[in-house]
Amino acid sequence: MAPSNLFPILLLLLLSLSVTAHDYQQALSKAILFFEGQRSGFLPQDQRMQWRANSGLGDGWTYNIDLTGGYYDAGDNVKFGFPMAFTTTMLSWSVIEFGDMMPPNEHRNALVAIRWATDYLLKTVSQPNRIFVQVGDPISDHNCWERPEDMDTRRTVYAVDAPNPASDVAGETAAALAASSMAFRSSDPAYSETLLRNAVKAFQLADNYRGAYSDNVDVRDGVCPYYCDFDGYQDELLWGAAWLRRATQDDNFLNYIQSNGKTLGAEENINEFGWDNKHAGLNVLVSKEVLEGNVLSLDSYKTSAESFLCTLIPETSSSHIEYTPGGLIYRPGGSNLQHATSIAFLELVYANYLSRTSQTINCGNIYVNAQTLRQLAKKQVDYILGDNPMGMSYMVGYGNKYPQRIHHRGSSLPSIKDHPQVIACKEGSIYFNSSNPNPNVLVGAIVGGPGEDDLYGDDRADFRKSEPTTYINAPFVGILAYFVANPNP
């Protein structure tokens, strides 16, 4: 029998373990549910986010095309094609890499979330030599604080017609459709084929007419400064080709990646990954074939991927990523948790590739294995879910303490179910300025997160910290799926 004076110590140990243990399955369910709160269009009968209703039902009428559906990217009511396509790619990659670790019902829910986006993306490339890149005038939209169900702002349709270029949006759309074709291959092969056929078409549009979509005068004022192409279109061409290679195993796409790597700057900006810059994700994705010993000619991509991963590890000589005092990956600018979720996702994906091939990474002064990468990713996940200096979960509706005043129109205004009367453009300002918690809980939404000092003020007006986005959540779905199956890597 243990000495009695050990019992208080054991009790404290057990209590501390209970505080830091997270319910990853619950978090996964909520991370996927969030996307229902972002839906545009005619909502289905099985809609679970009940405070939302139909919106944007006339989208596309000025072009005599149906552009209903898709997602609002964040807390506004605009459908931006560039981040929506990236969100779709990341949701699909989550299912491809970690879908078999999801409970069956959540796997189905993830596919539903992907399909809500892909049904819309298929519409955006349905006309020859044209891609629809956005619906909604952002200036008039951001000038109002109103529910999507009440929208009376201009639903301007922004399209790019060849020979004007849209390589970034078309390339990312190709990636999204190719990746999603893999996600649906077993459950809906006919839909998978449709996605893949349109992915090829989108890629051809991207490659044949090279350039950034935000350079076009017809769309620049609508897409900038919100989702301009700041980092060039070249990475999206390689990213789209890489996903088509993965989905088809066609050597033509392999040759494209091999021959265009240097000319399209595959070795530049290797430490960035997000809706605008695909380089780190591209390098991780392509490395799979190198690690498996299939295509050694792509070794430069593997070198770049591992160079990036080494920068994330404080013990290495090449470490240069910034962490907050509480341990969160931090990059200057807004919506910081997009970096934490996307980078943690890449760590887990690469860890899987290393495990399957029994390899490690040479980071100069140390060798890094799959377990190290997984533990790094887990620190980011647990920080977001509540293990941080604020003791706050940055996922709405998860844990006992989470953001109450998120920068999100639909969440912060009374639901149309509770307040059927129209709330006009400026009439919503009283709700925006209110210090009260949002009346509608956008379950699963991950906000922009704390600053470099780990502080978070829960202020609706501070959109850089309090606004959720689809592209923060999308990689987190895959991450959580991994930790559902492997809570202690």
UniProtKB/TrEMBL annotation:
<feature type="active site">
    <location>
        <position position="407"/>
    </location>
</feature>
<dbReference type="GO" id="GO:0008810">
    <property type="term" value="F:cellulase activity"/>
</dbReference>
<dbReference type="InterPro" id="IPR001701">
    <property type="entry name" value="Glyco_hydro_9"/>
</dbReference>
<dbReference type="InterPro" id="IPR008928">
    <property type="entry name" value="6-hairpin_glycosidase_sf"/>
</dbReference>
<dbReference type="InterPro" id="IPR033126">
    <property type="entry name" value="Glyco_hydro_9_Asp/Glu_AS"/>
</dbReference>
<feature type="signal peptide">
    <location>
        <begin position="1"/>
        <end position="21"/>
    </location>
</feature>
<comment type="similarity">
    <text>Belongs to the glycosyl hydrolase 9 (cellulase E) family.</text>
</comment>
<dbReference type="InterPro" id="IPR012341">
    <property type="entry name" value="6hp_glycosidase-like_sf"/>
</dbReference>
<keyword id="KW-0624">Polysaccharide degradation</keyword>
<keyword id="KW-0136">Cellulose degradation</keyword>
<keyword id="KW-0326">Glycosidase</keyword>
<dbReference type="GO" id="GO:0030245">
    <property type="term" value="P:cellulose catabolic process"/>
</dbReference>
<feature type="active site">
    <location>
        <position position="458"/>
    </location>
</feature>
<dbReference type="InterPro" id="IPR018221">
    <property type="entry name" value="Glyco_hydro_9_His_AS"/>
</dbReference>
<keyword id="KW-0119">Carbohydrate metabolism</keyword>
<protein>
    <recommendedName>
        <fullName>Endoglucanase</fullName>
        <ecNumber>3.2.1.4</ecNumber>
    </recommendedName>
</protein>
<dbReference type="Pfam" id="PF00759">
    <property type="entry name" value="Glyco_hydro_9"/>
</dbReference>
<keyword id="KW-0732">Signal</keyword>
<feature type="active site">
    <location>
        <position position="467"/>
    </location>
</feature>
<keyword id="KW-0378">Hydrolase</keyword>
<feature type="domain" description="Glycoside hydrolase family 9">
    <location>
        <begin position="24"/>
        <end position="480"/>
    </location>
</feature>
